[in-house]
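Worked example

This section walks through a single chain of length 871. The input is the sequence exactly as stored; nothing has been trimmed or padded.
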Amino acid sequence: MPKVKDPKETPLMKQYNAIKAKYPGALLLFRVGDFYETFGEDAIRASKVLDIVLTKRANGAASHIELAGFPHHSLDTYLPKLVRAGNRVAICDQLEDPKSVKGIVKRGVTELVTPGLSFNDNVLDRKSNNFLASVFFGKDKVGVSFLDLSTGEFMTSTGSREYVSKLFQGFNPSEVIMSKSDRDDFSTLFGDEYLTHHLDEWIYNFSFSYEKLIEHFKTTSLKGYGIEGMEEAITAAGAVLHYLEATEHKEMSHISSVSRIDEDKYVWLDKFTIRNLELVYAQHDGGVPLIDILDATVTPMGSRMLKKWMVLPLKELTAIRERLMVVEAFREDEELLEEVVQSLKHIGDVERLISKVAVGRINPREMLQLKKALSYTAPIKTSLTGCKVGPLKKLGDQLNPCEFLLERIEKELKDEVPIVSNQGNIIQDGVDEELDELRKIAFSGKDFLLQIQRREIERTGIPSLKIAYNKVFGYYLEVSNAHKEKVPEEWIRKQTLVNAERYITEELKVYEEKILNAEDKLIVIEQRLFQDLIAQAGDYVTQVQQNARILAMLDCLTSFAMVAANNNYVKPQVNDSTVIDIKEGRHPVIEKQLPVGETYVPNDVFLDNDQQQIMIITGPNMAGKSALLRQTALIVLLAQMGSFVPAHSASIGGVDKVFTRVGASDNLSKGESTFMVEMTETASILNNLSDRSLVLMDEIGRGTSTYDGVSIAWSIAEYLHNHRDHRAKTLFATHYHELNQLTEDFPRIRNFNVSVKEAGDKILFMRKLKEGGSEHSFGIHVAQLAGMPNRVVIRANEIMRFLEKDKHKNDTSEKLKEVPKANYQMSLFEADPRFKEVQQMIDALDINTISPVEALLKLNEIKSVLSEKKK
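Given that input, the structure is written out below as tokens.
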């Protein structure tokens, strides 16, 4: 909002404009008394997003400005709505107590909340990370960095544009920062898919970023983090730390390391594959992604880790086998599984809790949850350290019960506390002497006054003596006129009434001061003690973060074990061979969506580099070709995540890349046709093959003419088979039966078909893969099953039979010229008046709605009419 230049603007608006100028583009929440106010354009925007009243207020002598606000205690309600609407929100608080200040109160921005930077539980999704991404386009490579401020996870990597695009697909950042000079490059790669913020070019400087990182981590180099020499990655990561400072996030101790996303450690899944296989998100409304089947985690951090495991399956055999060993141990020891899961259920989101400790934002109730998490970590450690399974015992050894911190929280914090620390009643009795004394005064005041009253009655012999209070002179002693002669000399008379006198004493004055100030002092002392407790917990950030990682891993692995038990999964054998041998494999998602009583038809798949590198799979649409392709990829990926798999048995030779070209994915909004998208995705696959790639091709070439389609599909299959360097294992589903001929010329190509059973003019989908090619496409049958009007189906069948009569004729265009015209039957009726009545009967029929039985009856009726005519 431009600065208001009216010379008579109010002091408050002068202060507002000065602060607003420092945060261009941000919506400023300006604390005024008990309200957060917005002004001008911010007010108009906030009123629309929050559905609050927009008003106007005077801004000096001759101008008015829009105004919209809400109570300060409602910040947690309104802030998430503003951030989710894509706003950067600067929170401007009063930095001093208005009671102690004459004139304008000092104010300043205490936090700039952006979609990618927040600790607010209402902004964050418990089961998903909230990543801020930073991207830097170098000459040859792109650097990228991801930070989840709420957990302290900080990662960076360098690679090609395709690699960075794949990482973005997997990590799905809420906000992306970049240099202003990289806007065009980013737009070319991602369009307007992400919420972006542009920084000055000098921030994306390698030397500046390197210094930022070593200064933050207090090291002399970045070798210990495995990123030394990765200039683009370091440049992107350093910009993140600068951005944190610029947004008033000064406390960053929970960001204790930066890890390298090593391209060589994980299976390559390009963005098309992550989307096509529906690993984390369904492609269509009502769809079910794989993670919904696999996620039986009981902690938010476990759920977040599982998402990362899904998009980053492992390549390293040792790590895969360790995970599988743990899952197997839990499968075989149900008692241990139950013990660990029951404890995990009480842990909560300890990863985000300890981050709040590090930045001093944890509230008393969250501190109680941290205590609970620590108390349930100990039994998990005990259960695991007694295990004989090596990887499980190792996980148990890495857990730190943090006994001292747990004891201190138990000793100092009450069992029930308010959500905010400025309401008091959070610290236990016996922790602080002054606090205990003030509590006695504040909460036992009446008892203390009664003690004074009784004592003074005994001492003075005045039986009607009363102690009371008024606002004029506080606590006083009241004596009736009949006994005023007995009043001690040290009492000071304050008021004379008709029937009595009122007095004060030094003791009452001291007590009065204590009782009036006790509650204020109580809150101050409790807040100081709570801050001391937070500081103590701050010494354990690293240990608790380590616990969070181990507990999240355990949550994922117990989830795998429970899903395996519930769905009859088996342990896969993952090895360094080049063979994929799956016996009776099933699709993990589809088998859970089947109607009650229907069982999934399992299938075997065998692929290797020497005998059966490419499987050409033919069969009608709806027969299950696509499901077979997807289930093979999912079983391989599940195995390399460390999960059991839906099969009778599975031997998986480690895969390093999975490519899919499955299903239509038109990008018409960007002017790209189905065929263009198909060819782009296919080109990406063919240009990035490796010897251990798994390639899934589904209906390649269907977006163009038959001849073009067959030619392209044939050529791709040849290319995959004859590749000079790599023998990528391939499942090639097609409706082009011409491709069955490939097996005659290429030794590592085999034909298979998804079988169907013909019953008259009907087909039954058997969904069973068997060797050999399919002879028919059954397209017309599928059209009939889909509810196509009978007239269309009958006519299509007629044309197909005509074309198939003369299969030796190669010129399809000539044969099409000879197809009998659709209206030739009508001439029969015109030639012979005897059939007029029959014509009228047929014209009266609605062929689209008539049932088979009605058709037979009508045919019988027509036959009778014709018989009558002959007589």
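What to look for: The chain is about 45% helix and 15% strand.
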